[in-house]
Design brief:
Layout lengths: L1 H24 L11 H7 L4 H13 L3 E4 L3 E4 L4 H25 L2 H20 L14 H6 L5 H22 L3 H19 L3 H30 L4
Antiparallel strand pairs: 1-2
Helix pairs in contact: 1-3, 4-7, 4-9, 5-8, 7-9, 8-9
């Protein structure tokens, strides 16, 4: 009986973990919002035990920030944090792409081309206004780094950076001028992987991440200017 109860609690915890995770990424739960367990338990209709397990998982992937004497809050994507995340992302995803160009099978590369075709269709359906990818193997970046065959690198990207990056990318996915250029960058990266050119594949991925950061930086600077009353 105890095992059945524990399994049920784990299932509830996992389910609410995914719901809160997506709500944070898509802004349903605001950045910087204080975590009040009683309120969340009522909102997600779950007891505090499974909720606390879910919150611990959210802390482990950096979406919830717990600090001594001040409780827990949803992470805030400020300028400093996003700059540092993208610096690490550039180095690690660049190297993962280098490795993937050597380790991916032809079938995996063919699947990557097909994935980009699906992305292009999705963009057309949104009138070229949105390029936000689903999680896991439906995500271009995840697909590549998950195939690099370096488990240390995969684990760090997946468990420490990936969900934070999804938050960042959600903020830029609806910037019109970024959509087509991002898709073209992806095509060029896959071509380099397909040509088994690890150095060029890494360079292209690093440039792509640099471009994404420049877009975010411009957006943040514009927001700061508006907040300060500048035209």
């Amino acid at each position: 009986m105890g095992t059945l109860i524990n399994n049920k609690q784990n299932t509830l915890s996992e389910r609410v973990f995914h719901r809160i995770k997506e709500d944070i990424i898509f802004g349903v739960i605001a950045q910087g919002q204080k975590i009040v367990e009683d309120d969340l338990a009522k909102s997600y209709k779950i007891s505090r035990g499974p909720l606390r397990e879910a919150l611990h998982k959210l802390e482990s992937i950096n979406l919830v920030d717990r600090r001594p004497h001040s409780g827990s809050r949803v992470v805030t994507l400020d300028y400093k944090m996003m700059r540092e995340v993208y610096q690490v992302r550039e180095a690690m995803e660049g190297f993962a792409t280098r490795l993937a160009s050597l380790t991916m099978s032809q079938a995996e590369i063919d699947n990557l081309y097909r994935l980009l075709e699906k992305h292009e269709d999705s963009i057309k359906e949104s009138n070229s206004m949105v390029y936000f990818q689903k999680e896991g193997d439906l995500d271009f970046h995840y697909y590549i780094f998950s195939k690099c065959q370096n488990q240390w690198l995969i684990d760090y990207l997946n468990n420490k950076l990936y969900q934070i990056l999804r938050m960042c990318r959600h903020r830029t996915s609806q910037i019109p001028f970024r959509v087509e250029s991002a898709l073209q960058d992806h095509r060029n990266i896959v071509d380099a992987i397909n040509n088994r050119d690890p150095e060029f594949a890494e360079i292209l991925m690093r440039r792509h991440v640099q471009g994404a950061w420049q877009t975010i930086e411009q957006m943040l600077n514009k927001q700061n200017s508006c907040a300060n009353g500048e035209k």
